[in-house]
User: Fold these one by one.
Assistant:
Number 1:
Amino acid sequence: MDSGEERAPELRTLQQKVEYMVEKTFPGQKISGRVFADLVKERGGSLSHSYFSNILAGKVTQPSEDILKALGLGFGVDWRFFKEESEVVDDVVAGLQFLAKRRTGEISGLAGRGLDEDGLPPELLQFALSLLEEARGRRSTADGDGSTAHGEPEK
């Protein structure tokens, strides 16, 4: 039952969320606590490199709101993503999936009218991703090459 969409990972703990954001924000790079702390500082926040390293190690599980805001600054996402029962986790994951498809050229452009400073709503991002998957499926069927939407041979 693979629809071709990247399944949203289960992000329950702060450590899981930060690891996910490191992977998606800095793909293929090893980001040290010091580099991340410097990035937060450049963006107007404050976070010690050792505290960030402790978060990644799972030693910090319930930081203050100020720390969550610093994480948000460093990753460029809404700080509430890092809260325990976050309502924005799915929104951030959808946004990252959209950006990844934009980077790979699967989505070349998008125009929105009447957008505010928050940008595209998550529902629109999900809709755009679903349209992309439908188009990929139609293209694969039309090609009739015996491959799936992912280019893998059908079994």
Note: The first helix runs from residue 14 to 25.
Number 2:
Amino acid sequence: MRRRTVSAGSLEEILQATEPAPAPDGASATPAAAPAAGEEHRLRTEFEFELPRGYVDEAGTVHRHGSMRLATARDELRPQIDLRVKENPAYLSVVLLSQVITRLGAITDVHAGVVERMYATDVAFLQDFYRRVNSEGHTRAAVTCPHCEGGFEVDLSGGRLGES
């Protein structure tokens, strides 16, 4: 297989070269399924969450609300070369979570040391949250009422369970 290298002088040239051809008879080139002018469908890349217990920092402040971004391929590959993960494969989730959590309360520098000091219930919650966001694309969970056996969904990203 031969590789071909193509270079363009500027971004303007690339945009012009990839611009769709005008539709004949003055018809709109916009597909029928395209959103209306005011509607934009953006990919949601960051998800808010609330920890069941909360992270307690050195000053004793409890941090419960945070946000997690979608993971990239690099995020999932980087822990594989981390020495801590090579020594203890269970450490993979700590490293991975520390890369994708963008904020935890007032803390914006979430590193592996922060995740290490979280309660196990919070780490388990974040692992499930990570899986839902990155594998299933949403933060909803199907649950069943223990009293009436009725099924419904809850959104794991907002509020505490049972609250409206």
Note: Confidence is low (pLDDT under 50) at residues 1-8, 26-32, 159-164.
Number 3:
Amino acid sequence: MQVPLYQAKAEFFRMLGHPVRIRVLELLQGGPVPVRDLLAEIEIEPSSLSQQLAVLRRSGIVVSIREGSTVSYALAGGDVAELLRAARRILTELLAGRNELLAELRQAEPEPPLSVPHGGTGRT
């Protein structure tokens, strides 16, 4: 039985749903990066990075390249970089909307405080 497209998309986004994986993909946008450089940039335990790279490799989003004793990783295709750029644009728009709302709230006339009945705490 074939998996529905919406379910496949959900699994794809779940696979991306880890900060280390997103950071790795961001770092790989400029081309192949040796594992030692990824470790220096991300600052996590080597075993944790290895686990996250394995998830990305199994999904087919990244490929490993061995040159002598150096292992590097690269994006398997340019579409992932475009997806990351789209995510940045979407987040920028969302946050800009929040900043506009915050500015409106700050400019709005303050609402009068709620009055508490005299001599009580307002509890019944």
Note: The helical segments are 5-16, 19-27, 35-42, 46-59, 79-107.
Number 4:
Amino acid sequence: MVTTAPQRILLLLDEDSPVAAEAVRIAQENSAQLTALFVLDATWNDYVGHDWLSGSGSRADFIDYVQQEEEKSAERAFSRLRKLAGEAIEIQCITKVGNVVDQTRQEMEKGYDLLVASNPLRRGLERIRGNLAALCEKAPCRILLVPADI
């Protein structure tokens, strides 16, 4: 099977796996555009909606705390990525809010040649859900899954 070099790469960025280094390497080798997507997982509200926190003010405090931590995590991840890439390549950084898989699939539809993601997904509640198959199903581009613990 002959495949062409990717021209547009989408990186599903997470906190601290080796996926960013692999995406930068591929982008440099192919002189490709690299877009980093960090999805702020907004599904915590549904996830904790029916547990012991439901009837208390603690639930709202917890959701606020998670949102703040998600935003800090995005800043750290983009900063690490920029340091990793240095001056070698220009990176477009995108932040979206919502379900990690849904937001990634929507972004993939914008004409990327390759998605680079961690295996297992290590972004937000996807650590628990394990929706890697949903991300790959009927994908509009090739997908490279990078082991999270290499």
Note: The longest helix spans residues 57-85.
